[in-house]
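Changelog-adjacent note: as of this version, every example in the card shows the full chain rather than a window. The one below runs 387 residues end to end.
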Amino acid sequence: MRRILHVDMDAFYASVEELDDPTLRGRPIIVGADPKGGRGRGVVAACSYPARKFGIHSALPISRAWQLCPGGVYVRPRFERYQEISRTIMAILRRYTDLVEPLSVDEAFLDVSGSTALLGPAEQIARDIKDRILSETGLMASVGIAPNKFLAKIASDLEKPDGFVVVPHDGVQHFLNPLPISRLWGVGPKTAARLGALGARNVSDLAAIPKATLVDTLGVSGEHLWHLARGQDDRAVTPNWEPKSISSETTFEEDTRDVKLLVDTLRSLSDQVARRLRKQKFRAGLVTLKLRYASFTTHTKQTSVAQRVETGDDVFRLALRMFKQFPLAERVRLLGVGTGMLTREGENPEQLTLFSGARTGERLARTVDEIQDRFGDDALRRGSELT
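Full-length structure tokens:
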């Protein structure tokens, strides 16, 4: 019998901020903007549990968060710090099984079915994982234990923070039946309304609806929900999980049509994305540009490349080409640069062109990375940044 764990850190970003500054403990922490109160232009990346009591949640505009909680602590995200602690957490998880599938920096699935003979029951393993994470990082995790990934993920979320929920093999339907259908993957407001028209409010209602009726109503997703209502999910835990994209974006303090500012920002975002590509030993075959106007109208463009890229110069060149296709009759609120079609170095080798044999730009970029890693990001700067 499979025993799957879903380990999910509690309010991860905000908890890290609290860990590094104990004076913040117990206060409403909002991660996602400069500490400028209502003048923040971004959106909430994460928040602490005290902040959630004010109605704050991720993706909420910072200006709205400040209206709801003007006394909150507003901090800029520190993604490198979050990644640093994430690596420690993932290393702890891999002490118990090789079958660890990270979903993001703060959550992962584990298949401990083959570990129980040596390490004890899944419940004991889960308790030990929670204790190890707390003692080695100072942070709290919630854990769900179940026969499959779908059930484990729901279980880990039910009693946060510091949750510990077990779904036994013979208690799956008892566990699911009272839950609202919104707990099921793929059930948003529109789907919930259509299911409500069929009389489904909770999972037990949904489980009583014939599969054919659900398929007639929702198509392929109807069959998917029929299986979920019965707790059925045969997906394996996949340890070789890889990100599908790497991106970075920024929201301006004030909406702008300043071409120099926009282009400089594009350059900075391209450099950030390219550095993350190289750190994770990726090259990208797709570059995406995201632009949001002051009216909140959002547009994206993307371009694929025959020779995969990993330098800021290459990413910027492609992003700038797409940027020039956008009119600037309206002020710009947000810019973002992303990369996709990622491959590891050595995978899908490309035929080198006459002028690309040495990949001089990539070697130079890696040298810059080494210097900045050792001496700080300001150790080397572009000449254009000094004028």
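Structural remarks: The longest strand covers residues 332-344.
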